[in-house]
């Protein structure tokens, strides 16, 4: 039996995110998929529904494509931190980031731009930028080396709120095969953190993301994900040996074996 591909994306759960994904997302230069942006915005909504509140951060904000979607998904008074060295591919990237945020409705009062090397940032410095509150959501999309991801994961873990989520970009990407080695080592060293779901790639640029959560929150979050994303669940799931988690994909077919 064949199934149609589902190029649709799930509802992000916020009218402002929906409007940005429909009209603004493709006009901001960036690398993350609309599918992942919709899911992550919906995860932020889920956290709100579960009583998890507070600031968020993106390591590697670049020109703001994904950051703007996340910031639109916050509740009034919650802050979004954008961390980047802002020197690649040219120094003008910081101004383009600021202009994109302003153009797409993320005013300066809702966010903080932090220009610097995530690898040199202590957890206390990042938390201070967030007004002292732990972070409920951290998207890691900075330097793509094993050492840098290991450092960024340590920073994110130290700053994570109860019920918080850590999202890793460019997982299983053909261009960065060793990132998975860092993730595996991190999961072995941090048994209280587990993969909540895998967000399948849209294209080679809009790549796969892993969403991590505290083990104590896994069942609670997963049961909600099964309802919220029911049309996007790939039936076989992801085997992290021995932990299993959901795979969310726009293509939920199985291989035809007869
Ligand atoms: C792939 S881009 C991010 C794309 C963006 N998240 C999006 O979805 O459109 C990677 C970004 O990480 C930044 N970066 C690289 N090394 C970094 C570091 N050590 N600390 C902070 N940011 C870094 C780069 O400047 C670049 O803007």
Characterization of this structure:
InterPro entries: SAM-dependent_MTases_sf (IPR029063). This protein is α/β, with parallel strands linked by helices and 258 residues long. The protein has a single domain, classed as Rossmann fold. It is built from 8 helices and 9 strands. It has helices at residues 15-23, 34-49, 65-72, 93-103, 123-129, 146-159, 179-189, 215-228, and strands spanning 56-59, 80-84, 111-115, 135-140, 160-171, 193-199, 208-214, 238-239, 244-248. A 9-stranded mixed β-sheet has the order 3-2-1-4-5-7-6-9-8, with helices on both faces. Helix 2 (34-49) packs parallel to helix 3 (65-72), helix 5 (123-129) crosses helix 6 and helix 6 (146-159) runs parallel beside helix 7 (179-189). S-adenosylmethionine binds next to helix 3 and strand 2.
TL;DR of this structure?
This is Methyltransferase domain-containing protein. The chain has helices at residues 15-23, 34-49, 65-72, 93-103, 123-129, 146-159, 179-189, 215-228; strands spanning 56-59, 80-84, 111-115, 135-140, 160-171, 193-199, 208-214, 238-239, 244-248.
């Amino acid at each position: 039996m064949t199934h149609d591909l589902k190029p649709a994306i799930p509802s992000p759960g916020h009218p402002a995110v929906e409007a940005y994904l429909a009209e603004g997302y493709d006009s901001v230069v960036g690398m993350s998929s609309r599918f992942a942006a919709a899911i992550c915005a919906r995860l932020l909504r889920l956290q709100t529904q579960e009583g998890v509140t507070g600031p968020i951060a993106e390591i590697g904000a670049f020109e703001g494509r994904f950051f703007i979607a996340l910031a639109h998904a916050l509740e009034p008074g919650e802050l979004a931190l954008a961390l980047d060295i802002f020197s690649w591919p040219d120094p003008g990237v910081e101004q383009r980031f600021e202009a994109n945020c302003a153009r797409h409705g993320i005013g300066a009062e809702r966010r903080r731009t932090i220009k610097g090397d995530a690898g040199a940032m202590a957890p206390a410095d990042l938390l201070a930028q967030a007004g002292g509150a732990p972070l409920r959501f951290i998207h890691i999309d900075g330097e793509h080396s094993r050492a840098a991801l290991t450092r960024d994961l340590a920073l994110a873990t130290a700053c994570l709120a109860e019920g918080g989520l850590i999202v890793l970009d460019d997982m299983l990407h053909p261009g960065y095969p060793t990132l998975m080695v860092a993730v595996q080592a991190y999961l072995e060293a941090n048994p209280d953190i587990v993969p909540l779901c895998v967000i399948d790639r849209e294209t080679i640029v809009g790549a796969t993301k892993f969403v991590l959560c505290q083990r104590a929150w896994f069942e609670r979050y997963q049961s909600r994900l099964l309802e919220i994303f029911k049309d996007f669940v790939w039936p076989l799931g992801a085997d992290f040996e021995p932990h299993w988690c959901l795979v969310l994909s726009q293509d939920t077919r199985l291989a035809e074996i007869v």
